[in-house]
Design goal:
The structure holds 2 protein chains of 2 kinds. By secondary structure, chain A is of the alpha+beta class. Helices cover 54% and strands 18% of the residues of chain A. Chain A has a single domain, classed as Orthogonal Bundle (Arc Repressor Mutant, subunit A), CATH 1.10.10. In chain A, strand 4 and strand 5 form a beta hairpin. The longest helix of chain A has 26 residues. The mean pLDDT of chain A is 86. In chain B, 53% of the residues lie in helices and 14% in strands. Chain B contains 27 helices and 24 strands. In chain B, strand 3 and strand 4 form a beta hairpin. The longest helix of chain B is centred in the middle third of the chain and has 41 residues. The chains are: A alpha+beta, B alpha+beta. The interface between A and B is medium-sized, with 25 and 29 residues.
């Protein structure tokens, strides 16, 4: 396994939105989904997941309801709202622009100046 | 996000408070269990799996806090949660809680009440327009002035915008259904306008109304208007009969208006003062002068101008203008009460300091006990700010409840103070609870409780969590710093308590000395009523003497009456006139240097009724009447003062000021014991008793200050029970007789010592509170430190220390604290008790007996307070004490 990367400031919200956009998930499921997609290369402080979820729900970007988990336990499932979908799109766009700009800067060689 | 969703989220969070907590908990627990299950599947041993899952998750409390923060209602939420927790904590330690709240309430209550009185009596300006510019001009700063002097001062001075005069007036209101003896003032026309208070109804006196013949107007006080005229708005223009003369009501003063503010404070009606023939009178001093300083004129300038004027007048009319003093009106009003109130204020500030020290104590002790709780919460992931907020909320809660209870107590205490306060305190009737003081004190105590509630929390957090937990119940790490703080608090509490106790002790000795004072007469079983004939048919000179004689006879015949007589002014309760006289055969004294005396007029039977013994000579009898030669009785002081080394009996004196005619000589027939005059603590002045049946003014003057008699009767039983029969006896002659001043002599004596009694009572209450608080403080410190030395004591006992050694060990610590405090207190008391000099009687402010008694008493209390924890320490089982480590 490659060395784990620490999550960049402010990106957890985006990852959560993305994770629940694929299918409704409970908190632990979100963690597993992100790790699965990232091939376990991102280190996520598990406890910090929940404040992020509460924050997102408070903003109205995700919504939650209690359901039954795969192991027949009561669990709280989060799902993306319409507002959350728009938010995810704008965040994704912003992120892509940002990475393109930063990557461009970092690629720059002396000759190009 | 729309504001709607925000509100919805907020209300949902508020309403679903417990649900949110429950769900948050469930959700996180599910996470950890699911993770543990996954770990177990990956081969981690079952028992380690849960542990590892928890570790991975991190601090659950922190996460929850952040969740609450995220929902955005966190502050109020947390506050409610903390408050709930705080209430639970408080209920779990009811003794601590109740004590703290009681201590806070007491401190705030007592302080607010005293501050309220001080504010109303001392600090608040008098209720006149720009009252700081008002002054009084009086002989020696307190004695009345003659008419001619007033007129000269008024006409010659330039420093004053206006200068008015007031004369005492006590008319009988006879127009109502029951006659009433009232207190009023005759005032010059310019006097009321210079005060700057507008009448509520009608008008003030108009120019020219203070001329003889035009002076038939009267202005009523609000209370008199309410009481006698049923608040009739149509009272203006109505006629009232005062001393049998008709007056027209021209105005009603507003509610709360009081004039004059010192002397004649119960005046309820005012009428114009017409000088008439008195404008040339420089001898009869009866006026009080009030003036308003001109703009830009200082008190000093006014004083020097008056000094110049009176200096010239004194040369012109020797003996008439000496020591004329301009005093700011407020100073004249509050001057005498200033010292007692300041002493009480200092005392109550001490109580406040002790209160704060005690609250600090209890919170420190409690914080020490809760050190472990803090450590546990910190270990569970509670953030620093969170713990501090929790402590803050608890302190606020405690301070708040104590404060509210204190305000309630303050309202009660203020009312009680006004009720028990002596009537001689000026403006006491205007006392209301001072909310500024209440709020200030409330804040002060709350800040104290926060300060001392929070400091330990901060301290606890800075210590090593693991150490504290490991140390177990001993929690030693707070260490000596806190202990030193607590010891310092105890020392200061003791110092303050000692000062208060000495103050109280000095007042108790003063009061005891005052109780020992010999009144000269025997005040027990004596009742007195004043019967005024002014305005009735008995005022007629042809009838008055007969009426007085018959009235006294009728009172003597009442069942239980042993002796009865009459006098013009009752000692201590009534007026006290100082009159000059001449002694036969002595050279005419220079003006203003005539011998003077307190002038009383008595009927036969007065000395017997008062049991005022004659030392020499004979009593005034029925045969000393208008046809017999004039006689007087003098008191011992007069005999010593004017006939030193001589026998005064048979000597003659005269009160005639008219030197044109032959004087009426009065022969001294007896010398009586000195009786108290108008000041209980003062040594009696020379006094002369004239025979009523020989006194033309007493038997004939229509003036209301002459046309009355004060009856005194001695009974076998309860004197107060005789009052109705005495009143009936008077009214059986004439229903129009106004009766006033129904008092027992015991009551009069109690009233004369009411002020020191009041001061003694309050100081004693404060000192007792201080003593209790200081004892609680030392008890707390000693028992806390003894409990922390359990191990040490166990070691000592196992090494052979006896129980006596242990007792000594524990008590010694407390005694040192008490000694240090008492030492500081004695020094403070030596410095401060001088302030009390004016309040004391028969005892020095540094009275060694009081100091010693108080210091010893306080020491005993300290030993007792230490004995209880020491006894507990003595019972320590050394084996158990050592094993518990």
């Amino acid at each position: 396994m490659d060395q784990q990367l620490e999550l960049l400031q402010g990106t957890l919200d985006m990852l959560i939105l993305k994770a629940v956009s694929l299918s409704p998930l409970h908190g632990y499921g979100i963690l597993l989904r992100i790790q699965q997609i990232s091939k376990e290369r991102l280190e996520i402080q598990q406890g910090s997941l929940y404040p992020a979820l509460y924050r997102l729900e408070h903003h109205g970007w995700i919504t939650s309801e209690w359901g039954e988990s795969e192991n027949k336990r009561r669990a709280r499932y989060y799902r993306l709202t319409a507002a959350g979908k728009r938010r995810l799109e704008s965040e994704t766009k912003r992120w892509n622009q940002m990475t393109a700009v930063i990557a461009g800067i970092l690629r720059t060689t002396p000759e190009e100046l | 996000m729309t504001s709607w969703t925000r509100i919805r989220s907020w209300t949902a969070a508020m309403l679903g408070r417990t649900r949110m907590e429950r769900e948050m908990d469930e959700e996180m627990r599910y996470h950890i269990e699911a993770r543990a299950a996954d770990l177990a599947e990956q081969g981690v041993p079952q028992e380690d799996a849960l542990r590892q899952a928890r570790l991975e998750f991190g601090g659950m409390e922190t996460a929850k806090d952040e969740c609450r923060d995220a929902v955005g209602v966190s502050f109020i939420e947390t506050l409610m949660q903390d408050a709930r927790h705080g209430v639970r904590t408080m209920l779990r330690a009811p003794v601590f809680t109740i004590t703290t709240i009681a201590v806070l309430a007491l401190g705030i209550g007592a302080n607010t009440a005293i501050f309220s009185v001080v504010d109303a009596v001392l600090l608040r300006p008098l209720a006149y327009r720009d009252s700081g510019r008002l002054v009084t001009i009086l002989m020696s700063g307190e004695d009345p002035v003659s008419v001619a002097n007033y007129i000269d001062w008024r006409d010659q001075s330039r420093s004053f915008a206006a200068m008015g005069a007031a004369d005492f007036w006590s008319p009988n209101l006879t127009s109502g259904d029951s006659p009433e003896h009232l207190t009023g003032l005759k005032v010059t026309q310019n006097l009321l306008p210079l005060l700057g208070v507008q009448p509520m109804l009608g008008r003030l006196f108009a120019a020219g109304e203070d001329q003889e013949g035009a002076d038939g107007e009267v202005i009523l006080s609000y209370r008199l208007w309410q009481r006698k005229f049923s608040s009739d708005p149509g009272v203006l223009g109505k006629s009232v009969s005062l001393d049998g003369k008709g007056y027209v009501v021209v105005g009603v003063m507003p509610r709360g208006f009081q004039f004059a503010p010192f002397w004649a404070t119960h005046a309820e009606l005012w009428t114009p003062l017409a000088f008439g023939a008195r404008i040339h009178d420089r001898g009869g001093n009866s006026l009080r002068i009030f003036a308003r300083l001109n703009d830009g004129v200082s008190l000093k300038q006014a004083r020097s101008e008056i000094a110049g004027i009176t200096g010239r007048l004194e040369q012109q009319y020797p003996g008439t203008n000496r020591e004329v003093v301009v005093v700011p009106l407020k100073e004249r009003v509050v001057g005498k009460i200033e010292t007692p109130l300041l002493v009480l204020l200092i005392a109550v500030v001490f109580v406040l300091l002790i209160t704060c020290a005690n609250v600090a104590h209890m919170l420190l002790a409690r914080a020490a006990a809760r050190q472990k709780e803090v450590a546990v919460r910190a270990a569970l992931g509670a953030r620093r700010g969170r713990i501090i907020r929790q402590f803050l909320t608890e302190s606020l809660l405690l301070g708040g409840v104590g404060g509210v209870a204190g305000l309630g107590l303050a309202a009660l205490a203020t009312r009680a103070l006004v009720a028990i306060g002596p009537a001689s305190i000026p403006r006491v009737q205007t006392v209301t609870i001072d909310w500024r003081a209440a709020i200030f004190l409330f804040s002060a105590t709350v800040v104290t409780s926060i300060g001392f509630g929070l400091a330990p929390a901060l301290q606890s957090l800075s210590i090593n969590v693991q150490d504290t937990l490991k140390e177990g119940s001993r929690g030693n790490s707070q260490g000596s710093g806190q202990n030193r703080l607590r010891s310092a608090l105890v020392v200061s509490e003791f110092a303050l308590a000692l000062m208060l106790l000495i103050g109280a002790g000095l007042m108790i000795r003063t009061f005891a000395a005052l109780q020992e004072v010999d009144a000269g007469f025997n005040p027990h079983h004596v009742i007195s009523i004043a019967v005024s004939v002014a305005g009735s048919k008995e005022a007629d000179p042809a009838r008055r003497e007969i009426f007085y004689r018959q009235l006294i006879e009728r009172v003597r015949a009442l069942p239980g009456v042993q002796a009865a007589g009459g006098i013009n002014h009752l000692p201590l309760a009534g007026d006290s006139w100082g009159w000059p006289f001449a002694i036969e055969g002595r050279p005419k004294p220079r003006p203003g240097e005539s011998p003077g005396c307190v002038y009383r007029i008595v009927t036969p039977g007065y000395f017997e009724a008062m049991q005022l013994p004659l030392i020499r000579g004979r009593n005034i009898s029925d045969t000393d009447n208008a046809t017999a030669p004039g006689v007087v009785i003098i008191n011992e002081r007069a005999a010593q003062e004017y006939w030193p080394g001589e026998d005064p009996l048979g000597k003659r004196i005269s009160f005639d000021s008219d030197t044109a005619n032959l004087p009426t000589w009065l022969t001294i027939i007896g010398v009586s014991k000195d009786a108290k005059q108008d000041d209980w603590a003062a040594h009696p002045l020379p006094e002369v008793y004239l025979a009523a049946l020989q006194n033309r003014e007493f038997l004939g003057s229509p003036a209301s200050y002459f046309a009355y008699i004060t009856l005194v009767a001695r009974t076998a039983g309860d004197p107060a029970a005789l009052a109705p029969a005495m009143k009936e006896a008077a009214w059986s002659f004439d229903r129009n007789l106004a009766i006033s001043q129904v008092v027992t002599m015991d009551g009069v004596v109690a009233e004369a010592t009411a002020e020191p009694r009041f001061e003694m009572l309050l100081l004693t209450i404060f000192a007792t509170v201080a003593l209790v608080l200081a004892s609680v403080g030392i008890y707390g410190v000693i028992s806390y430190s003894a409990s922390r030395r359990t191990h040490e004591i166990g070691v000592r006992m196992s090494l052979g220390a006896t129980r006596g050694d242990v007792l000594l060990l524990v008590v010694r610590q407390g005694v040192w604290l008490a000694l240090a405090g008492s030492g500081a207190g004695i020094v403070g008391a030596l410095l401060l008790s001088r302030l009390m000099t004016k309040l004391l009687y028969g005892v020095q402010p540094t009275d060694p007996a009081t100091f010693a008694t108080v210091a010893m008493g306080l020491g005993l209390v300290a030993i007792l307070a230490c004995y209880l924890p020491a006894r507990r320490a003595m019972r320590i089982d050394p084996v158990a004490a050592l094993r518990c480590e």
